[in-house]
Design a protein that fits this description.
about 775 residues, alpha/beta, TIM Barrel, Rossmann fold, Immunoglobulin-like, 3 domains, 5-stranded parallel β-sheet, 24 helices, binds beta-D-glucopyranose
Length: about 775
């Protein structure tokens, strides 16, 4: 009551009328200690804890980070990765501030700290949560040893528009797969004890709906209806929370006209009230200050007020809390209890991380751990298991190591180190350690083979972003038209005098990531022309794709006999590609998204609803007149070097009461002559109900490894979690007594079919 009338006096009446106070976290040993510490803190010290400042001068500031820390104006530091620099600042916090409260150091450890793993989208293509957990625990080990306590990952935003550059950071289009991967990442980062020297606090981001940006333009508004929000965009966040994610990051964009950083529906109604989140929320970089730029907050003071009262505990980098919260409290516009409730989970996290006992990084240990040889092995395994074989006509792959005496590795990415990485890796990784695809093939084949490479074409962005200046290295001067023709011809000539051509094409890493959206899915530059010229030589051609989104490879899909999707595969990507091409490893990854034929089909996702004229209607379907509606490759698709038979789909009981479990089994057998791995996928469709339900929804998957002739029976269980959905009409989660289809297979086009029926409990 008190705060309402005070806020009313301040002219903030409209906001304050329904001002929700942040709920106090329940008592546990960490919050009890945090509570005791809070009692001793001044208002300024509390506001300092709510502020995260840059450890590098990325955002201009009159004071150095050290001065800010000494003044108690920082609870956390971002963008530092050097243990010595981290310790130096930590020493100021611990030794020179009144209450000796340690800093939390946060960094984007998205797909590795020093050892760089495949981009998250690629890791999702492994459909292997155990591997993903191992990868993120390896990243956590390196980061924590270096003094990083908190990673701004996992990004669990569902993406159904591949024009959006940040698709690379997520797990693709599907909430079920996305949730499994979100859980694995949180487990990998946090483990079971955050105070152990190899774990970091996770941050589920960007809450929520960032992946649905209008037109795929980064930062643009998202408009997401209620049923899509609950059924598609929110589940991976909930999964991250249930796995224990200690923090969330608010999103930049407007969700249904309210910026994520002041969105009380998201931060209060969903996160705290419905899900009972007890950790803390950090804003995205500068997003508190940017509430004014959005045309949402009147001024910075209003921005600070709105973000804090919506539920953003920590202001990342904008210093808006530092500059304005004190004034709001002193003028009695904001009750100090709101500040206290915001500070408490931050202090509790510091206790939980064990920072009061062990604030410093052990620099000697960091030197031993960071970039250790066994970490590179994990990176190679991850790159191998992430790769997706899209085409393999006449079993061209794997190549015989002895047969190819001369191999041409052609394309702008054939010998690129930087593009095997991606943007966020640049904070701490060292791309000069990368073995390129050409180098790796050369190393694998040894002196007996001639392996030459040629770029053929060059790739450039028309509108570079701030990140290109930060991470892209010094700008290269463009080839002149004459040079371009010479290089093109050189590459085609090389192809003509070689036995096998490996084309390495796709995107510069700078073509995706933050602030890197695009209008088309075309292969950038003159790559298609080069591919066609090389194919015209009549040689065996394999296409290796290095990219972070589906590209329009329709021509290649009909003309290039073997296509391997390798993504931006990280530091061991070159070696992994060589292992896969020459049969030292077998591909087993599957697409975590639907691969469109062209940008004109976007959005295209497998879990769409039926229409009154489904595509199956011969000449009256819901389709284009100039292109099939079907994708180039379906969600869940990927080939291997052997064959699998998936059969014998059995539903244990054809009728199961609502609330019970539908038990399903299916057999998978390796019918080929090589060992291999298959991802068996289970899809359902609810035939009728209170809402139209998607034609198919993934509800189970298992990646299995089988020797030739080996057969396994896989069990799946469909319970409330799998059968429930949010009804926008009834405003609740419902499970309905209806008929269901169930399919099992190797991708979302699976044809092995059965049915079951949920019946009302009383009819049992
Ligand atoms: C990104 C976040 C990231 C933050 C800190 C922002 O620009 O949107 O995902 O965690 O910067 O680097």
């Amino acid at each position: 009551m008190l705060h309402r009338s005070l806020a009313g006096k301040a002219g903030l009446c409209a906001i304050a009328l329904s001002l929700p106070l942040l709920p106090a976290p329940p008592a546990n040993p960490h919050t009890t200690k945090a509570q005791a510490l809070l009692q001793r803190m001044t208002l300024e010290e509390k506001i300092g804890q709510l502020s995260q400042i840059g450890g590098i001068n990325f955002i201009p500031d009159a004071l150095t980070p050290e001065q800010r820390v000494r003044l108690g104006q920082a609870g956390s530091i971002l963008w530092l990765s050097d243990p010595a620099a981290i310790n130096k600042l930590q020493r100021v916090a611990v030794e020179e501030t009144r209450l000796h409260i340690p800093l939390i150091f946060g960094l984007d450890v998205i797909h590795g700290f020093k050892t760089i793993f495949p981009i998250p989208l690629a890791m999702a293509a492994s459909w292997d949560p155990a591997l993903i957990e191992k990868v993120q625990s390896t990243a956590a080990r390196e980061a924590r040893a270096s003094g990083i306590h908190w990673t701004f990952a996992p990004m669990v935003d569902i993406t159904r528009d591949p024009r959006w550059g940040r698709m690379i950071e997520g797990a693709g289009e599907d909430p079920f797969l996305g949730s499994a991967i979100a859980r694995a990442q949180v487990r990998g980062f946090q483990g079971s004890d955050l105070s152990s020297p190899d774990r970091v606090l996770a941050c589920a981001k960007h809450f929520a709906g960032y992946g649905a940006a209008d037109g795929g333009r980064d930062y643009d508004s998202s408009y997401i209806p209620e049923d899509q929000m609950w059924n598609v965009y929110l589940p991976p966040f909930h999964a991250a929370l249930q796995a224990g994610a200690g923090t969330f990051m608010s999103a930049y964009m407007d969700l249904n006209d309210v910026p994520g950083t002041a969105n009380r529906f998201l931060l209060q109604t969903v996160l705290r009230k419905t899900w009972g989140f007890q950790g803390f929320v950090v804003s995205d970089a500068n997003s508190v200050g940017d509430l004014t730029t959005h045309g949402f907050a009147r001024d910075k003071r209003d921005a600070a007020y709105r973000a804090l009262t919506a539920g953003v505990n920590m202001d990342m980098a904008s210093r808006t809390y530092l500059d304005h919260l004190g004034e709001l409290v002193k003028q009695r516009r904001l009750p100090v209890s709101v500040i206290d409730n915001a500070v408490l989970p931050i202090l509790a996290a510091k206790y939980q991380l064990g920072l009061f006992e062990h604030p410093y990084a052990d620099e000697a240990l960091a030197r031993q751990i960071v970039g250790a040889a066994d970490h590179a092995k994990v990176a190679r395994e991850a790159a191998v298991r992430s790769a997706v074989l899209l085409r393999n006509e006449r079993q061209l792959l794997p190549l015989d190591k002895r047969a190819g005496r001369s191999i041409a590795v052609i394309g702008p990415l054939a010998d690129s180190q930087r593009d095997l990485y991606s943007m966020w890796a640049s904070f701490s990784g060292d791309f000069t350690k990368v073995t390129t695809v050409a180098q790796a093939i050369r190393a694998k084949l040894g002196a007996g083979a001639r392996v030459e490479s040629a770029p053929g074409v060059e790739l450039r962005k028309i509108y570079p972003s701030m990140f290109d200046r930060m991470f892209g290295g010094p700008p290269k001067s463009a080839w002149t038209p004459e040079q371009a023709d010479t290089e093109f011809k050189k590459a085609v000539d090389l192809a003509s005098r070689s036995d096998v051509v490996v084309l390495v094409m796709g995107e510069l890493s700078a073509m995706n990531g933050e602030s890197a959206s695009q209008t088309t899915l075309d292969l950038p530059g003159r790559q298609l022309e080069l591919m066609q010229a090389v194919a015209a030589t009549g040689k065996f051609v394999v296409l290796v794709l290095i990219n972070g989104r589906p590209l329009d490879i329709s021509w290649a899909a009909g003309h290039i006999p073997a296509i391997l999707e390798a993504w931006h595969p990280g530091q061991e990507g070159g070696n992994a590609v060589a292992d896969l091409l020459f049969g030292d490893a077998a591909p087993g990854g599957k697409l975590p998204f639907t691969w469109p034929r062209s940008a004109g089909q976007i959005p295209l996702y497998y879990a769409h609803n039926l229409t009154h004229q489904p595509d199956s209607a011969k000449d009256f379907g819901s389709r284009y007149w100039d292109s099939p509606s079907s994708p180039l490759y379906p969600f869940g698709y990927g080939l291997g070097y052997t064959r699998f038979a998936i059969s014998n789909l059995r539903v244990r009981a054809a009728q199961v009461p609502v609330g019970g479990k539908v038990e399903v089994t299916v057999d998978v057998e390796n019918t080929g002559s090589r060992a291999g791995e298959e991802v068996v996928q289970l899809y359902i469709h609810q035939q009728a109900g209170a809402a139209s339900r998607p034609v198919r929804q993934l509800k189970g998957f298992a990646r299995v490894s089988l020797q030739p002739g080996e057969k396994k029976t896989l069990p799946f269980s469909l319970g409330n979690d799998e059968l429930t959905y949010w009804s926008a009409e009834q405003k609740k989660w419902i499970v309905e007594a209806e008929n269901f289809d169930v399919w099992a297979g190797a991708d979302s086009n699976a044809t092995l079919h059965s049915t079951f029926r949920l019946i009302p409990p009383a009819a049992r």
